Amino acid sequence: MKIAQLSENDIQGGAAKAAYRINEALNGLSAESTMVVHNKSSDSKVVETVAKTNFQKVLAKIRPTYDKLPLKMFYRNREDVPFSVAKAGTNIVKNDLVKQSDIIDLHWIVGGFLSLGSLDKLSNLDKPIVWTLHDQWAFTGGCHYSGECSKYEESCGSCPLLGSRRENDITRKIWKKKRKIYRDLNLTIVSPSKWLANLARESSLLEEKNVKVVPNTLPADIFKPIDQEVARDILDLPKNQKVILFGAISATSDERKGFRYLVDSLKALQNRDNISDQEVKLLVFGASHSEDIKHIPFEKNFLGYLHDSYSLTLCYNAADVFVTPSLQDNLPNTIMESLSCGTPVVGFDVGGIPDMIEDKENGYLADYRSADDLSEGITWVLGDQEKLKELGQRAREKVLDSYTYENVGKQYLALYHSLLSEKGG
């Protein structure tokens, strides 16, 4: 069985990393899986880029900008929102790896990689298509996360994200195109989280499709517990302080990451009787120093963007707790990585986060948008050294039970085999 995993990138961004790890897991089980990408950043032999010639590489750089033009033309100052038109893309059906594959698995495919026209042409290949969701884009009129909006349950239009008041706006037009395309696709949906699966089932575009839940995965042999003192020595961190870790791409600028709730929770933490400024240090990766971070009361260390798993492993192991104040997320890699390193996690009870954090078992689930409860969770985790150790052990057990390459890879292979059997392959 030959599998083509389609993704805009291979390792840049959370969705790309998740897809890359699924591809690694499948190859580890002797499956013939190749990741076909728009932009290749790794040196993996099982990742192939469609941009091989100089001309194709130039096009790969131009397409993302071209794809945003409709937003710039019709919705001023809206071209930077998490929204994809999918007007620009490659004719992926001409790619040899895609043509020779038995199964096509779509991941995060916008950003100039695949257009809606590209998706439409996939039906000509007469192959089972799996779409592994990393956000909501597959079933909305263009947004990647809908926030409080549920118009994707009907037909979009009057998009609040774009500030549109027209029913027949760009989101309605994209919705109509997707509806027409999906009718002709032999499409099965995979969601890494129960939350996103439920949204897909409730959506007007995917309600008739088969939706399955298969979690993301990670290399648990890399993200593993190591001696905390060793990790702190390498990162030049004090051994006598409680270290709170926070990290995300665009950690302080993406509102969905909930940074202001982190700030408010740490201010509340400072006012607790059992916590002093000298006892706590904040460790931040994924963002450099910013004006926003100045408002955090505790001493801070900034690590910037970390591009390798080993550096991230050191960070998780150096920390006592990882805090994720995300307001809407699928199945964040950072939570899984922290748990795999035996570091408990505090986060809001929202999205796919409860799939990983078991309240007061391997971390703490705080009330949604409550900075006070987020602070309470941090205090609870840090309050007892023996409890902290037990939380860490259960965190690691959660990953070994649910998210290893072997566990997740076998679930994907079982799905692929069942689809081929249904097709008669």
Commentary on this structure:
Helices cover 38% and strands 16% of the residues. It is an alpha/beta fold. Strands 3-2-1-4-5-6-7 form a 7-stranded parallel β-sheet. It has a 6-stranded parallel β-sheet with strand order 10-9-8-11-12-13, with helices on both faces. Helix 9 crosses helix 13 and helix 11 packs across helix 14 (385-402). The longest helix has 19 residues, at 405-423. The radius of gyration is 22 Å and the shape is globular. The relative contact order is 0.11. The model has no long low-confidence stretch (mean pLDDT 92).
Sketch the major β-sheet.
7 strands, parallel
C-alpha Rg, in Å?
Answer: 22 Å
- How much helix, percentage-wise, in residues? 25-40%
| Outline | globular
Secondary-structure map:
Layout: E1 2-9, H1 14-28, E2 32-39, E3 47-49, H2 54-67, H3 69-74, H4 96-100, E4 103-106, H5 116-122, E5 129-132, H6 170-183, E6 187-191, H7 194-202, E7 210-213, H8 228-235, E8 242-247, H9 259-270, E9 280-285, E10 299-304, H10 309-318, E11 321-324, H11 333-340, E12 345-348, H12 353-356, E13 363-366, H13 371-382, H14 385-402, H15 405-423
Parallel strand pairs: 1-2, 1-4, 2-3, 4-5, 5-6, 6-7, 8-9, 8-11, 9-10, 11-12, 12-13
Helix pairs in contact: 1-15, 8-10, 9-13, 11-14
Quick structural gist:
The protein has 15 helices and 13 strands. It is α/β, with parallel strands linked by helices.
Task: Please tag this protein with its features.
425 residues, alpha/beta, seven-stranded parallel beta sheet
